From TrEMBL:
Domain of life, source organism: Bacteria
Family annotation (SUPFAM superfamilies): NAD(P)-binding Rossmann-fold domains
Family per record: Belongs to the short-chain dehydrogenases/reductases (SDR) family.
Extent of the signal sequence: none
InterPro entries recorded: NAD(P)-bd_dom_sf, SDR_fam
Name of the protein described by the UniProt record: 3-oxoacyl-[acyl-carrier protein] reductase
Record PANTHER family: 3-OXOACYL-[ACYL-CARRIER-PROTEIN] REDUCTASE, SHORT-CHAIN DEHYDROGENASES/REDUCTASES FAMILY MEMBER
Organism: Bosea thiooxidans
UniProt keyword annotations, A-Z: Oxidoreductase
Presence of keyword Oxidoreductase: yes
Example GO molecular function: oxidoreductase activity, acting on the CH-OH group of donors, NAD or NADP as acceptor
Keyword check for Oxidoreductase: yes
Classification lineage: Bacteria, Pseudomonadati, Pseudomonadota, Alphaproteobacteria, Hyphomicrobiales
Amino acid sequence: MQKRSQDALSGQVALVTGGARGIGAAIGLALAEAGATVYAADLLPCDEVVSRIVEAGGSAQGLALDVTDRPACAAAVEGIVAAQGRLDILVCNAGICPPGAVAGDWGQWDRVIDVNVNGTQNCIAAAWDHMVSRRYGRIVLVSSMAYYQGGVIVGTEYSASKGAVAAMTRHIARNGGQHGILCNAVAPGVIATEMTASFSKPDLAAIPVRRIGTAEDVAGPVRFLCGPDSSYMTGTILNVTGGIVLAA
């Protein structure tokens, strides 16, 4: 019998990057609700999400982390393993999504690729050997529907970065399965967060469910991918788009 959802991750330790607000904060709360000890990592202070988890009876700590800093990512994982003896779950959510165009500025291109692609790889590489040695790991990456159908408001660099994340998901899945490591991704659609607050609002008629998504709409599928009910899934990209993307 599978564990109930509220204790499905009991005893496990999770690192969530970009965990201070928005989708990352919602993911941290969802994993803690399922019993995981959560490390919320971000350049922004994580005090609020940590307090919410602790007040709800969960366990959490905040980490100051720049995912583009490779040694810092390695040190963060080493610190978690030293303190907890394990790292079971890695959610690579940290990313940036500035408005852009097909021919934007090269500084923005470099920055988006550095955070969204290199930052994701830095965290995976930091956790990989530990997960291999334990023969267990759940890695969830955050892509975007832009990887599949391109973006309109966002720049080429964002769509390219999220396409890279989708490809990385499949590569890690292909190479991790034999070590007990599953890697899946979510590809959110239009989600209301602080990061997208300045973007123009979409026509709800273009969204089959007729509403903009919430951070919690993304957190639920991530929790599922981290838990026992998805133990035979790897290399899967779940579209969380309210029906905008119907196949991938």
